[in-house]
Specification:
Layout: E1 2-3, E2 22-27, E3 30-36, E4 42-45, H1 47-50, E5 57-62, E6 65-76, E7 90-94, E8 117-122, E9 127-128, E10 132-133, E11 144-149, E12 152-153, H2 154-161, E13 174-178, H3 188-193, E14 205-206, E15 215-218, E16 221-230, E17 252-257, H4 258-272, E18 286-288, E19 294-302, E20 314-322, E21 335-340, E22 346-354, E23 363-373, E24 383-391
Parallel strand pairs: 18-24
Antiparallel strand pairs: 1-14, 2-3, 2-5, 3-4, 4-7, 5-6, 6-7, 8-11, 8-15, 9-10, 12-13, 13-17, 15-16, 16-17, 19-22, 20-21, 20-23, 23-24
Protein name: Trypsin-like serine protease
Domain Peptidase S1: 1-270
Enzyme class: hydrolase
């Protein structure tokens, strides 16, 4: 991750300081970055990181140490277009659950990303904005953090530059940022598109080799997945501080827009989870705690009614809530939005239960479901609540 500082270690992210769910995705002698999703069993990354891979390994740096987990399978977006960097997304499923200490992330689903501040996290090469990234040689890649702001979309850039860019972004599918240093001469979108914004100051950064597949967060949700960088010019004017594509001031970067691709992500995760219940009679309201790792307990949401239109999305928000069980001690809290896409009438929500070897009473936690859009819970009903019981299996207590 390139930053404007002359000391890239200032922006290193050490285990336990946050972003422990941002991972390194290794394929042969190459690597990119990725982010662990809710449920602790799948990582979102870029298709070009994995394209043609035989084996994939996910490295996690956690407070408990470095952990390598092999992938059980992976899937590229079926419409991945390398030439235009469209649909450049992939999912990786882990052979074992991620450790509890690794942070899980939800998707940013809401639109309106342009103008939003973002945090970029990844295992890219270090460097500074004047000279670009530096080859780290034999040094083990480190996780780094930078900030930026979403300036425009890929199709808006294409409309402005026409033949000035050789690729063809799908409308609304790519988020674009530039790397500012506070100078109007190196404000890429000021020069190229008349979008004058001098950015986030000394904390601003750009992606570099190794950051491909890494997340761009809006607050705590994944809004973008790192795809490419470019140096551009218009009418003989180049905002790039050194006219070399090396992650220096005046360059731009693109991210796959997660809100645009959320249907593929959600449906891919649902299809892969063969343990999720599909009938009410298959739902278990209790789960044995286990001795380590996490186990999944499910809630099944069903819609009984008719959509206003065949292509309508139905949504509800949901959040876990403590009963006698405590979040992050007995289960991993989750807050998200569930969407039933066209053709779907039900979907399961998985919550991770944390195993341990401590004798304790059976405990409960709740899932609250609220804010339905496209349907209702019934007249006068604002919220639905379900409960799950964690059965202790560690012996008797007094």
């Amino acid at each position: 991750m390139v930053t404007v500082t002359q000391n890239p270690d200032r922006y290193r992210v050490m285990p336990g300081e946050g972003y422990d769910g941002v991972v390194q995705v290794s394929v042969g002698g190459f690597y990119g970055s990725g982010v662990l999703l809710n449920g602790g069993r799948a990582v979102l990354t870029s298709a070009h990181v994995l394209d043609g891979a035989d084996a994939v390994t996910v490295r996690m740096d956690t407070p408990a140490g470095r952990l390598n987990i092999s992938a059980s399978q992976y899937a590229l977006h079926p419409f991945y277009d390398e030439a235009s960097s469209n649909s450049d997304l992939a999912l990786v499923w882990l052979e074992e659950p991620a450790p509890v200490s690794a942070e899980r992330s939800a998707l940013y689903r809401y639109g309106g990303e342009v103008g939003s501040d973002i945090s970029l996290v990844g295992y890219g090469l270090p460097g500074d904005g004047l000279t670009g990234y530096e080859d780290s040689g034999s040094v083990l890649p480190a996780k780094r953090l930078a900030e930026n702001r979403v300036d425009t979309t890929g199709d808006a850039l294409k409309d402005a530059l026409g033949r000035g860019i050789a690729w063809d972004p799908l409308p609304g599918s790519q988020l674009i940022i530039d790397f500012d240093n506070g100078s109007s001469e190196n404000d890429a979108f000021g020069v190229l598109m008349g979008l004058h914004d001098l950015g986030r100051g000394a904390s601003e950064g750009l992606i570099a080799p190794g950051d491909s597949g890494g997340p761009a967060f809006i607050e705590d949700n994944v809004a973008g997945v790192a795809t490419y960088t470019a140096t551009l010019s218009r009418n003989g004017q180049s905002p790039d501080v050194n006219d070399t594509q090396d992650g220096s001031f005046g360059e731009i970067a693109s991210f796959q827009r997660v809100s645009y691709y959320q249907q593929w992500i959600d449906r891919s995760l649902r299809v892969a989870d063969t343990d999720a219940p599909t009938r009410p009679e298959d739902v278990d309201t209790t789960i044995r705690e286990g001795d380590d790792d996490t186990s999944l307990v499910y809630f099944l949401l069903e819609f009984h009614g008719e959509r206003d239109a065949p292509d309508q999305w139905l949504t509800v928000d949901y959040a876990t809530r403590d009963g006698t069980a405590a979040a992050e001690e007995d289960y991993i809290a989750v807050t998200d939005t569930l969407i039933l896409y066209p053709g779907e009438t039900q979907a399961a929500i998985a919550v991770e239960v944390i195993g341990d070897e401590i004798p304790e009473p059976d405990e409960t936690f709740h899932l609250d479901v609220f804010n339905p859009v496209g349907g209702s819970f019934g007249e006068g009903v604002a919220q639905l609540t379900a409960v799950r019981t964690i059965i202790d299996d560690d012996g008797w207590i007094a």
